[in-house]
Structures are given as structure tokens and as C-alpha cells.
Amino acid sequence: MSGAALDFSRQRSASADPLFRRILAAGAAAGGILLLVITGYLIAYSSPLWAIQSPISFLTTPAWITGIEQADGSVLEVYGAASVIFGTAATSLIAVIFAAPIGILGAVYLVEFAPRRLAAPLAFLVELIAAIPSVVFGLWAVGDLSNRLRDSIEWWIASSFGQIFPWLSEDPTAPASDSVFRAGFLLAIMILPMIVAVSREFLRSVPISLREGYIGMGATRWEAIRDVVIPTARVGLIGAVLLALGRALGETIAVTMVIGNAEGIPSSLFLPGQTIASKIANNIGETSGAIPLASMVALALSLFLLSFFISLAVRLTLRRFSQVRIVS
Amino acid sequence: MMLDMVSEKSKRAKAAVPAEQHQGSPATTPADQGGVLALGGVEAFYGSFRAVNNVSLEVQPRAVTALIGPSGCGKSTLLRTINRMHETIPGATVKGSITLDGIDLYDADVDAVRVRRVIGMVFQKPNPFPTMSIYENVAAGLRLLGRTPKSEMDGVVESSLRRAALWDEVKEKLKQPGTSLSGGQQQRLCIARAIAVQPRVLLMDEPCSALDPVATLKIEELIRELAADYTIVIVTHNMQQASRVSDSTAFFSMDENRAGYLVEAGPTPMIFTSPKESLTESYVAGRFG
Question: Given an 8 Å threshold on Cβ–Cβ distance, is B125 in contact with A218?
Fold first, then answer.
């Protein structure tokens, strides 16, 4: 008995494969080209500044003086990014200090303790917070949160530790209307959903069999979380915090609205300051001339490099995570 | 020595505080000749679903008892009621009584966490803790009990690994992660980990189902050796395994409501050659399941 003739000749649909592959390759290449274009722009357009000031001096000088005419007729120009780099680092660190423990503990609660009917809606709510535009956060902070923080946490820290650490002091009769601390705290709220969501994924990826193995040898649930679940997910949790840190570094509009935009490194966290992003947002509208524009681009370049190294760290950390073999 | 599984709080209330059972005793043989396990009318539920119906069973001390039966007959669930792991699943409950050397493990005063220190468990898939070294995996149970001097801990780790027939293979690499071992070695590591805290009973939930035949044979030899010191209850899908390793066999099946029940139990040769029930006979003959 013979069946129909076999036919293995190439079908037309197969010829779509190379085309599809080219479209995908073009998409991937676009990403790389874009990165090169932006890097090239940042380097090229910041170069006029390097003619009058070295990059080292730019990064280490706190003063920022745009063209003041001196008595002798010369113009004084100093472009120093140190104070805005300080502001960026301080706000981001404050954000991480508050958001990392709360976010990770929140994720532990969602994964380990929340009743199943509660866990999914709670996780969804947290993710909704991430969808709130930052200008809305900024407005809320200006109108409400900022004053509450001043009268609660900020006041408490200043009155408890201000005597010992001047950088935590505050004039009790006239607290500043804006502060680095409040910007950092607002950032903490803004990055919290990201830390919860990413940590939750990594905690959930820890196999039940590991928890059961430990509980089965006489551990309490808390001990299983402390000794097995968190250590197994550890690298992922670090990745979650670094990812959120990257977001905090670049956040612009909300920070600009509450940080006070004052020049110089503030003597206390409870005084106004500014970050790289908020300075660019504030000054770009009134900047003209090659060197002042170059100074803005130089600020952008430093923020770009800072974020770049943070995301590089994220990639390297998460790569290590995937190498940790998990038995499921 | 008295079994001590009563929760700390109620112990204080009674003002009679026996010494912590395991602390400071380096040997890995059981502290005494106990290990008599008795199940009376045990029923296990997932929510309202009854997975195990009215099981009564006397388990021989320091012998191997195999629980066999078709998939879904509740044998794993029953095993997990013995060390009170069943109740860690949300909505899961247990009725009936399970006693170990006369103490009801489900008594209101009994702390489930302390029950699990006396009744160790080995799981279906080897589950060494990936962030812990081979040494730390074995030491994990003792660390939970409190501080143990380094020299003593070294002794327990070595004797447990020797007992689990793994020492010669890992003594040069105790600091490497437990997950770096092969599947069969990982399972023997999990057995070493379980016996390091000197349990009286070892529960094994299909311990060889993820292993190749050679590794399976090694685990089976080990189970035979461990039976000299521990009461072992093993769930297995593999009837040859049950006949090779066990002294007694309990055969389970499912009733019309899908609840598992005990068909019959007895010495393994009897169950495999001249069972009382025809259902057992057709199962061990491979006619269903």
C-alpha cells in the first residue's frame, strides 16, 4: 500500500523567516545606535566646558557661578557639580534606606504570610502606586506630605540627633520650607512599589521544597524565612534595590518640586539643596551661550554615567543570581 | 529519656522543665530505644476534602514500614500528618490521634515545631539548601537548637555523613555548596541532615523517585542500615522497592469519595505473597495502580 507522495520542498512561509530575522535585528540595532548617538551627543556638546575647566575640577567643585562680571571687567565662571552630585547621592540614599527594608519586608509578607485572597489585590495595589505619574507625587508632596514630614519624622530626627550630628540639625523655630530629606523620603515612596514587585518575584521563585525541608527539620516559619528564603533570594533582593536606586537617581520633576533648588552643599539634610536632575530641569530654560549649555550637558553626562554604572551593577548581580543553582 | 515536645510556654506553666533533649549529645544514635508510633482513626483534610479516611496503624519501632498504593490514595498526606507537616498547608487539618511513645502528637500542649525535631523527614526531590555548604546543610538542624561548640559540631557532621554513607565522597569538599553534588549524593546529604538531630522517626516521601537505579540502590541499602536505629516510614510507588526495603507494608486505596483508606497492613512477605484482601493481591500483582 502506498500513501500520498512525500514532499519536503521549501514552502513559501519559510521565506518569511530571514525577513523577520532582519526586522528583529534592526530593532535590536536601533537600541545600540541610540545609545551611541546619546553618548556621542553628551561628549561632543559638553566639550566646550572642558576647554575652561577640567572634568576633575567639574566633579569636585561645589560652586556654580555663571558669568559674574568682576570689578576688573573680567567674567567669573565656575561650574562645579559637587553639590548636585551630593544632592543626588543624598536623596537616593535616603530613599533606599527607607524603601529597601520596608519594601523587602512587604514582599516577604505578601509571599509568606498574606492570605491568598489578600495577597493578589495587595500586590496589584502596590503596582498601581508605581503607575502614578511623578508630577502627581510632586504636587502631593508640595501640598501635603512635605509639611507632615517636617512636623513628624524630620522634627523627631532633628530633635533627637541634631545636637550630636550637625548634618541632622534643624532650626526649630523656622524649619526650612523644603529639604533634601523630604525629597529623599518622597523618592522612597516612589521607588517602594518597584522594590516590592521585584523582591516578590525573587522570593516567590524560592522553591516550596526548600521551605518544607527546613520546617521539616524543626524550624519555625520565621526561621525558614530568615535562614533559607531570604538567603536564597538574596542576590535578587540586592538587584531589586539597585534597580530602584537607578530610578531614584534620575527622578526629576517630583524632586524639583520639593527639594528647594538651593545652590551649594547644604549643612544639614533638613535644608534645601538640589540634585543633578533637578538642576538641569530648573536651569535649562534660562541657559544660553556655548559654555553654560555645555555645563548642562556635562551635568547630564555625569548623571548618565552614574545610572549606567548602577545598571551595570544590577546586570552583574542578577547574572550571579541566575548562576546560583536552585533545586526545585 | 522522656520525649519532650511540649511547647515552651506550657512547660513553664507546669514548672517541670526537663532538659532539652538533643543539646550537647554528639552521637547520632537515638537517645533511647523508643520510637513506637501508633495512628488511631487518622483523617486528613484539605479544606473540606477528605484525603485520608480513618486510618489506624501500629508502626514497628526500629523497622521499615512501607506505605504503598495507587496515586492519590493519600499515602503522602498520611505521612505528612505524622510530623505535623500536613497542617502547614493553608486549610489543611487532621483528626484522630497519632502517638509517639505514648505521647499524643496532636495534644494541645504539643509544639509542632518540636515534633518535627524528633520526627525527621526526607522529601521526594533532594532539597539541600542552596546557600549553605555541605557542612552547613548537615549542621542546620543543630544550629536551630542553639549554640553548639565547633568541635562538637564537627563530630556530629562527620558521624551523620558517615551514617548516610556520604563522608568518603564529600570529606574533601565540605565547604562546597550542597547543590554541587549529584542527585543521589544530595539525597544522602538530606538523610544526613535529618539524622544529625537524632530523631526517633524518619519519614521518607518517595525518596528515590527522582534518582537513577544505582543511586536508588545506595539509598535503599542505607535505609536498611538506618532501620537498626530509627523507626522508618517510607512512601513508595515502587512495589519492588517496598518488598526490598521494608519489614512491614501498609496498602492503601481510594474509596468512592476519593478518600484514601487503609486496606490492610502486615509483614511485607505476607502482603506480597498471601494478602488477606483480593484488592491487595491485584495491586501487588500489578493489575492496577
Answer: no
Residue A151 lies inside a defined structural domain of this protein: yes
Cell of residue A259, nine digits: 527639594
- Distance (Å) from the alpha carbon of A88 to chain B's nearest alpha carbon: 35
pLDDT digits (tens, 9 = 90+) for B211-269: 999 999 999 999 999 999 999 999 998 899 999 999 999 999 998 888 999 999 999 99
Distance CA B150, CA B153 (A): 5
A-chain residue closest to B136, CA distance: A227
CATH, residue A130? 1.10.3720.10
**ipTM of the assembly?**
0.86
**Interchain CB distance below 8 Å, A232 and B130:** yes
Residue B57's DSSP bridge partners are: B39
Interface mutation vs chain A, best among B4, B83, B86, B129, most A CBs within 10 Å:
B129
CATH number assigned to the domain covering B34-127+201-284: 3.40.50.300
Report pLDDT digits (tens) over A157-206.
998 898 889 888 888 777 888 999 999 999 999 999 999 999 999 999 99
